[in-house]
Batch of 2 targets.
Target 1
Amino acid sequence: MLKKVTLLYFSSTKTTQKNLRAIAEGMGCPVTEVDFTLPQNRQQDLHFDQDDFVIFGCPVYGGLMPLLVREYIQQHVTATQTGCAVVAVYGNRHFDDCLVEMEDLMTEQGFVVTAAAACLGEHSYTTKIATGRPDAQDLVWAKEFGKQLAGKLEAPVQPLEKGKIPGNRPYRERKPSAPMAPENTNGCIKCGLCVKNCPVGAIDPQDPGKVDASKCLKCLSCVRLCPLGSKAFTSEAFQGSVAWCLANFQEPRKEPISIL
Ligand SMILES: Cc1cc2nc3c(=O)[nH]c(=O)nc-3n(C[C@H](O)[C@H](O)[C@H](O)COP(=O)(O)O)c2cc1C
Ligand code: SF4
Ligand code: SF4
């Protein structure tokens, strides 16, 4: 029996959103979207029941879930035996322990995790890693995963066998990263686009050149969105991280994986 399907996700640069939407298309049923990327969308409490099915997606940050995603789910999302698929989207290095962390967290919140996928997304730090992903090939794959998932929902949902999802417990250490923030390099017309789309409200609405480095996730949403190409992370520390990523993440091309 097909359930009420909800896409529940955080996606700063929209690669998680693209992967989830393709999975939903493959499922071939109407879906509701709960995009909790922006702070105003992380206020509401959500509860799901046995008539629901949730596809939960987030990007991989440092081999784990972004901390704010973890905190939002812990504080606001509960379920009563609701079937769930967890989808981690990563920038061609690895998803490490992110999927098992998602599996454990959703189980703690009352979900039954019955499927998982690790999909690819262009790396937030640079367009030179996992460029253009998810690409056409990834989206075909995501639709096929969605089709298989819909088939699985014909039967009552069962949890995946423990250990089927790759990843380590205990998870890798969640290391706080050095505070950094983007600079304005090229003027600013105060259009407010970056302000409205910052997931943590770090950009000053009166003066968008001012960013609170202690809040910034380095998600690069503002850099990608600015119509003038004004925002950039120019610090040596950030450029060092990009150089490290370029040396370690670029090759070979990784393919999505699914666990059903
Ligand atoms: C702070 C940060 C840490 C990241 N850590 C990893 C990582 O450990 N492994 C990886 O392959 N990609 C990593 N990425 C890349 C993202 O997972 C990838 O770009 C993803 O597609 C972003 O999803 P979004 O477009 O939905 O925001 C990281 C990105 C950011 C911003
Ligand atoms: S200021 Fe930081 S957190 Fe906000 S959109 Fe820009 S990179 Fe992301
Ligand atoms: S998106 Fe660019 S131009 Fe618009 S407010 Fe932000 S920095 Fe200024």
Target 2
Amino acid sequence: MKVIITGASKGIGSGIAAVLARKGYHVGLTARSQDLLKQMQDQIASDGGRCHIAACDLRDPDQVQAAFSKLIEQMNGVDALINNAGLVIRKDVFTLSLDEWRAMVETNINGVFYAVRVVLPFMKRQGGGHIINISSISGRLPLPGGSGYAATKYAVTGFSESLMQEVRDYGIKVTTIFPGSVDSESHRHDPDENHSWKIKPEEVGVACHEVLNTAPGALISQLEIRPLHRPPQKK
Ligand SMILES: NC(=O)c1ccc[n+]([C@@H]2O[C@H](COP(=O)([O-])OP(=O)(O)OC[C@H]3O[C@@H](n4cnc5c(N)ncnc54)[C@H](OP(=O)(O)O)[C@@H]3O)[C@@H](O)[C@H]2O)c1
């Protein structure tokens, strides 16, 4: 299976890429950092996997079109898209700046739309495909101290669940994933914090693999992933 993963330079996206490449998927990775993407590509190649990379800023529709077209050409098609990239700024409404609000809207909402509109025509023509959108628990439950971020993730949820209804009759599956706390850079707010209880990025990768391998006639439209253990109580 040929799958494009956004935000694959680090965090959850790199965990998803590593797991899927190990399982034999042909992966196309994108993010802004060319250097980190190259490191991922070298790592996957040294483990015997197949990987192409194309850097782009998801806030720019022309860059998205160019990077995705390059990946689709290099992989000779696309079967799945995992919209994982996102900007997590956990500030309340008193402290979030205008630029931070705009950056989250442009990355977390517009970026998902730009990516989807490039791959959908291919999937429609081939009569099938799968889009996984990474929302968040913050995209279905209020998040005090992160209202701007929550607003963008609620938008991802609404877009993703509506998209599922729009494209299912073309044989295209859409799954919305709602992770809880995952141990990535964006979730390391306090350097002294214990991170061991959090979901590992690769565990989200395993969930994506399972979602992508449901029976042809079945669709997992929503998947919530929680850490098994609660955070340790602060003394
Ligand atoms: N960590 C959690 O606990 C958690 C929980 C629920 C949901 N999520 C969601 O999971 C996703 C990944 O989060 P994460 O924790 O792995 O974050 P992360 O470690 O900060 O990684 C974010 C990824 O997105 C890419 N990215 C950011 N802005 C971009 C842009 N303008 N254009 C292209 N790529 C961009 C980054 O690459 P470059 O910087 O190289 O561009 C990076 O690869 C996000 O959508 C987040 O909302 C995270």
